[in-house]
Design a protein that fits this description.
The complex is a heterodimer of chains A (380) and B (326). Chain A has 380 residues and is of the alpha+beta class. Chain A contains 9 helices and 20 strands. The chains are: A alpha+beta (380), B mainly alpha (326). At the A-B interface, strand 6 and helix 3 of A face helix 8 and helix 9 of B.
């Protein structure tokens, strides 16, 4: 392996087939009676990752997290943390700490005592305990509130106490269950970056459970998308966004326009015959396809260009349409454009010019175009 | 142009709206009545009840406790007298309270009552806490079945249940017969008419009063707090002493007072199960009143008992208000 290759792997150990995973989840299944919450999940997570488990409610992400923490026993399969099989290790003996969705701060203890709780259990000497508690509280900027009780704090402050309490024990692995769900939008964005900074500073491996795709995209080194107890795709945020493997993932993460149709060929490339559109649509190259196959062509709203004049670019797919409506979002505008066959597409346009200079209005006849290689072929 | 049907419709609509106005007016009248009169009345009735059947009798007892015992009907001197110069004269006799202090029987009995009810309260707590905990942790139907079993004894008379214990604990009773049959003992053990029997009676009778407030407290407890503690490295026993127990102190205090207060003044259980061997203040009061016919001393015993019981109540109130302020 060349030095260059090694450097490339340094930040992305999952690309390196020789790297040892820090956490290995092997064929883990969890059943509650007849209900299967998690089904045959296998995952490798590497040291220093900020890994997200993303999915809607009831997809099994929280159950998987609780099995890592030791609150649930897997019905089948193994979990290894740093090479040690965790199956028979009780929650209190695992090198793992969790930040709960409800924060679960002890209401009868002050902020200081909450944070010190874990160190006291480990028998850390008093002087060291108070030093580490003070360090941790100053990192989350709560040192002056250390004598307060949890109910005297705001939501954001409680969240930071919960984080400090989980981190003060310097766990190898920190589990975060919907860490930002209870915060308002502004605080959430701010805290996202704080979390990333803290993770970077301490080098702790984070596993975050979230239902918020935007949060997962900003925070994570990698995302595992879960549905019905199974992992349906694992990848870096850009991979999951740009190359979703199924229609469900494409729909769950961001917005996407889709055309269903049948594959046909012409000369050197494949085309999609879409029953609603008269013109066949060119499919991206480098995709293995069979003629007659039913597939879906998908294109993200920001990959589409919209102009008043025909771009006359043979390399792009160009369609005519009419602006139905648009929403001004400040940084971008979202347009809904009706093309032939009652098909409505969503297009996002960055607002490069001021609002007053906006060129495209309601009912305007427009040309929309995209490069075939920016589109995707999805199967069911 | 308005068609006839339309106008009819309009008329009926108008009618509807006037009806609505009338309706609203009525609602307002009724509301006002309820708010002013009825609300006052609903508060007044229980207070009138308490004044007639609690406060007035209390003052009568208080009055008697300052009187002198007489062989007459009623058997005590009157507190107020018209002197010859037509002035109202009030004679307060503190002898009864002094007597309670001088005769060490009363002090001893008070102390014994407090001892018995304290030990009973602790026993109820030790038995009731695990039971309440188990009920909270039980699932679905089982939980309600267990709760029902705690409440079930209330469906039979308290007196009957104490009599049942007499049958169980007697020399020839169920328990002794069973132990002899099982070959554990040859001779019946004397269990009746002892402090042991009184403890059994009190703990048995008052256990539900300990379990129910503890159950209510434990039920509200957030289970993720246990998980958080265990996640931070606390062994289950440590979790109990550092998280569960401190958070159930309100339930322990409530349950403790519900057992301690009635147990201190308990009369039936020491009388039926303790016989003459266990002195408790409730029994002394009863004897003073019914056997000695010394109403003033009996009244003084009652007032002293009340003071004894009001102190822990006030401490509890104080603790509760402090908790609310926190």
């Amino acid at each position: 392996m060349s030095t260059q290759e090694r450097d490339a792997f340094l930040d992305r150990p999952w690309k390196d087939s020789t790297a040892e995973p820090f956490i290995r989840i092997e064929g883990v299944t969890k059943r509650f009676g007849a209900f299967t919450a998690v089904e045959a999940v296998s995952l490798d997570i590497y040291k220093g990752e900020l890994f997200s488990l993303l999915g809607g409610s009831g997809c099994g992400k929280t159950t998987l997290l609780r099995m890592l923490a030791g609150f649930e026993e897997p019905t089948a399969g193994h979990i290894y943390i740093d090479g040690v099989d965790m199956v028979d290790v009780p929650a209190y003996a695992r090198p793992v700490n969790m930040m709960f969705q409800s924060y679960a701060l002890f209401p009868h203890m002050s902020v200081e005592d909450n944070v010190a709780y874990g160190l006291k259990r480990d028998g850390v000497p008093k002087a060291e305990t108070s030093q580490r508690v003070a360090d941790m509280l100053s990192m989350v900027e709560l040192l002056e509130l250390q004598k307060r009780k949890p109910h005297q704090l705001s939501g954001g402050q409680r969240q930071r106490v919960a984080l400090a309490r989980a981190l003060v024990k310097r766990p190898k692995l920190l589990l975060l269950d919907e860490p930002l769900a209870a915060l308002d939008k502004r605080l959430r964005e701010q805290t996202q970056f704080e979390l990333m900074n803290i993770q970077d500073q301490l080098g702790v491996t984070f596993i975050v459970v979230t239902h918020d795709q935007e949060e997962a995209m900003t925070l994570s080194t990698r995302i595992a998308v879960m549905d019905h107890g199974q992992i349906i795709q694992v990848g870096e945020p850009s991979e999951v966004y740009e190359r979703p493997q199924t229609k469900d993932i494409a729909n769950f993460i961001g917005t996407i326009n889709m055309f269903d149709g049948e594959v046909m060929s012409s000369n050197d490339s494949f085309l999609l015959r879409c029953p609603k559109i008269s013109k066949p649509l060119k499919l991206p190259s480098q995709t293995e396809l069979n003629i007659g196959q039913q597939v879906t062509l998908a294109i993200r709203p920001e990959k589409i260009k919209m102009t008043l004049e025909d771009p006359h670019d043979p390399s792009r797919i160009t369609l005519r349409g009419e602006v139905l409506e648009f929403a001004y979002m400040g940084n971008i505008s979202i347009y809904r454009v009706k093309i032939e066959g009652e098909v409505v597409l969503q297009i996002t346009i960055p607002n490069l010019d001021r609002m007053a200079e906006r060129k495209i209005e309601w009912d305007d006849q427009v040309f929309i175009s995209w490069h075939p290689d920016n589109s995707l072929v999805l199967r069911d | 142009m308005i068609k006839p049907t339309d106008s009819a419709l309009t008329a009926s609509r108008l009618n509807e709206s006037t009806k609505m106005i009338f309706h609203r007016r009525w609602v307002r009248v009724v509301d006002n009545f309820f708010q002013s009169r009825w609300k006052g009345l609903s508060v007044a009735i229980p207070y009138v009840w308490l004044v007639i059947f609690f406060l007035i009798p209390f003052f009568i007892v208080l009055k008697i406790s300052f009187a002198e015992s007489l062989i007459a009907s009623p058997p005590f001197s009157s507190l107020f007298e018209w002197s010859e110069d037509a002035a109202l004269k009030m004679t307060l006799i503190f002898d009864n309270f002094a007597y309670l202090w001088e005769d060490d029987l009363y002090v001893k009995t008070y102390l014994n009552s407090v001892k018995i009810s304290t030990i009973s309260t602790i026993l109820c707590l030790l038995i009731g806490y695990p039971m309440a905990y188990a009920i909270v942790r039980a699932s679905g139907t089982m939980k309600y079945l267990l709760l029902l079993m705690v409440i079930l004894p209330f469906w039979t008379s308290f007196l009957l249940r104490v009599y049942a214990w007499m049958g169980i604990l007697a020399d020839q009773g169920t328990l002794n017969s069973f132990l002899i049959w099982a070959g554990v003992i040859d001779q019946p053990i004397r269990m009746m008419y002892s402090e042991f029997a009184v403890y059994i009676g009190i703990v048995y009778s008052y256990l539900p009063f300990m379990i129910l407030p503890l159950y209510a407290n434990l039920e509200k407890l957030d289970l993720t707090l246990h998980e958080a503690a265990s996640d931070l490295g606390a062994h289950p026993i440590t979790v109990f002493f550092t998280v569960t127990l401190p958070l159930t102190i309100p339930g322990i205090i409530a349950g403790g007072l519900l057992v301690f207060i009635p147990a201190t003044g308990e009369f039936v259980i020491p009388d039926l199960l303790g016989g003459g061997n266990v002195l408790m203040i409730g029994r002394v009061l009863y004897d003073e009143f019914n056997s000695n016919h010394d109403w003033p001393v009996a009244a003084a015993v009652a007032i002293a008992l009340l003071i004894l019981l009001v102190i822990p109540m006030m401490l509890y109130q104080h603790a509760q208000s402090r908790q609310i302020n926190n």
